[in-house]
Design a protein that fits this description.
CATH architecture of the largest domain: Alpha-Beta Complex
Low-confidence stretches: 3-10
Structural class: alpha+beta
Order of helices and strands: EHEEHEEEHHEEEEEEHEEEHH
Radius of gyration: 22 Å
Largest sheet: 7 strands, mixed
Helix content: 10-25%
CATH topology of the largest domain: Nucleoside Triphosphate Pyrophosphohydrolase
CATH class of the largest domain: Alpha Beta
Number of domains: 3
CATH superfamily of the largest domain: Nucleoside Triphosphate Pyrophosphohydrolase
Strand content: 25-35%
């Protein structure tokens, strides 16, 4: 199987969590005095134990300043800087602040500005990692969090622990004329998406693409190219987007998918304008916040250009 890098990966756009990032300012994580000085003007995103963020009556982010909360950053996680303003994250149980609503990350990704949705995604991923790493996986000792929340150290054996990201490939597979999509049984009726799976130890990304497509659909990949990536904090994946060319094999699903099939350009074109509850029938595609939808749209745009050219 051959592989190459797409010469214009920036064409893969429109999905959440991948634009307008914070300056992570790693240099400040060990500087308690600097973080304390930044605190009064800082913005603080507040998350519940369920991973929802505080929001105002309109459903937009309600992020108080450090000055509003008083004191100093304490155990808050330092997320980074934007235009000289620090951003922190705190758990709702430790904040003397109330808000009109709680908003989950998927809703925020669809309705908030890209920057604020990205801050929410980072905060949620950090709290998820911390909640599942309170004890050392080596000796079972209690873990103490340092470096403004980015490092855990076992109080018993001294082992260091760092935030985990799970790499996964997600791939738009084409036989040159059709697009391969699959569906899981838990999804809304008629929804299909591109093929995805986690990278296994000792495996390259290209090998993962070929293996996952073959395992889940029985389709043989000939070549693939990388297009772009999306942090996917549900709970902590990094989705690495590919386009692949494959043999026109008849799809045969395993136990991970309920169904997989080839879809024509005309079917994808019709589905791009279809909404889940609009009363119509036919294929439903992945939501717009996901790189899955961006990959589908990228394939469609390429086919449209080829047909018009």
């Amino acid at each position: 199987m051959s592989v190459h890098t797409d010469p214009a990966p920036s064409t893969l756009t429109g999905f959440a969590f991948a634009g307008d990032p914070l300056d992570r300012a790693d240099r400040l994580r060990d500087d308690a005095e600097a973080l304390f000085r930044l605190w009064p003007q800082a913005r603080v995103i507040v998350l519940t134990r369920e991973g929802e963020a505080f929001a105002d009556a309109a459903g937009q982010l309600a992020a108080p300043s450090g000055g509003d909360l008083g004191g100093g950053p304490g155990t808050a996680i330092f997320l980074g800087l934007r235009d000289g303003v620090a951003w922190f994250a705190m758990e709702a149980d430790s904040v003397p602040f109330e808000a009109a609503q709680r908003v989950d990350l998927r809703r925020a990704a669809a309705t908030w500005p890209a920057f604020e949705a990205g801050v929410f995604a980072l905060a949620r991923a950090m709290f998820y990692w911390r909640s599942r790493n309170r004890f050392c996986g080596i000796c079972g000792g209690e873990v103490e969090f340092r470096r403004a929340g980015y490092q855990g150290r076992c109080r018993q054996c001294g082992a260091d622990h760092y935030p985990r990201v799970d790499p996964a490939v997600i791939v738009a597979v084409s036989d040159g004329e059709r697009l391969l999509l699959g569906r899981q049984s838990a999804w809304p009726a008629r929804r299909y998406s591109v093929i995805a799976g986690f990278v296994e130890p000792g495996e390259s990304l290209e090998q993962t693409v070929a293996r996952e497509v073959l395992e889940e659909t029985g389709v043989r990949v000939r070549s693939c190219r990388y297009l772009g990536a999306q942090p996917w904090p549900f709970p902590g994946a990094l989705m690495l987007g590919f386009a692949a060319e494959a043999e026109p094999d008849v799809p045969q699903v395993d136990d991970e998918l309920e169904d997989a099939r080839w879809f024509t350009f005309e079917e994808i074109a019709a589905a791009r304008d279809r909404r889940e509850n609009d009363g119509s029938e036919g294929l439903l595609l992945s939501p717009g916040i996901s790189i899955a939808r961006a990959l589908i749209d990228h394939w469609y745009a390429g086919m449209l250009s080829r047909r018009q050219g």
